[in-house]
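Write out structure tokens for DUF805 domain-containing protein.
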Amino acid sequence: MPFLQAAFCLKGFDDRSRFFTTSIIAILGFIFCSAIFSSYIVVSFTILLILTAVLTCSAKRRLHDAKLNKNWQLVPGGLLLLTGVLSLLLENSSSYYLLILPVLSAALLLTYPSKGTKEKNNYILGYYGPVDLSRYKQKTVVMKTHNQRIEPTLAANGASEQLYAYDTIAEQNITPNEQSDYDPESKHTDIGELIRITFLGNRKLQLGIIAIVSLIFIAVLVNSAINAINPPQENTNSVELGETKVSPNNVPVNILANKNHLLAMPDNFNLYLSEYQGVIIHWQADQVANGELWSQLSINGDKSCQSIKFNKGSSIRPLTVLVENGSEYFASFSPLDSGELIQALAFRGKFSLCGYSFSLKGSQAVLGKHNQYAPFLEQDA
């Protein structure tokens, strides 16, 4: 396919618009794909390598177009690869802020104007090079009326109508190249040049941007370090489960009375839907007293049950966590959170609740095959 060949071409030229589009697709494409395939790091890394190659090739063509030093060709792609790998390893949604580095490097390349004056009329979709993209070029239709006859008239306004007819014929025979000799890149002052010169000449602005980028890096690393230092500890939480005081006399049985649509998940837990389409997560664990383990209304009980936490994304609070038969745990969630919760169960890698950790590998396929849960995957989170 010529379009894909042009994307990986190393000998052509890319104008500003094409390089801008390629940069946006590469960076946003990595963000979306890494979020979708968060459970499959190999797939995410492969996509990152492909997008890095596309961005690097486009950067080299942009350098050809602006007649700049080729030492810049690895900067945008290298920064995308570096920050992308860090984002995959940190497993934290805030790590996407690190992608500001490839964004800034791409923005700097955009400030340089095109210097290829001979080839500028031959660009197709912003590309000029050995790959033939002529099939994507829009053909201009020129209407020609060589033998159009103008009938004479004796009316008073006949002269003006005849003049209008000749003017119309002349306009129809003008080709696009004859309509205007104006070249937008022939301006003496280029906006990109002005931005770059202003930035390079303003020491305070440079220090400000460096400070902002440094703060972003520090914040992301500190946040990731805190999450790594304080993971859910099963042993500690198991002790807390045994020591937690539950209230067996005040169990909201109505929430669990009408649980329907049992769905067994891969990692030894089940899903139900209440009569109001609220999600109920069920699993078997340590033996404790029956009753209410956690209640959002009273904010009492085991603190490890106050929210379900995923490896990426925000946590969700259950309404209640109940224990039946000594080891049957039921976490009930609000119907308003059903869409977000089921999508998180489908697209995240793992979650923890009440000190127990569960893998979500293969959960998307299981949810997608059930007619009661599959519609939630099509909703906007």
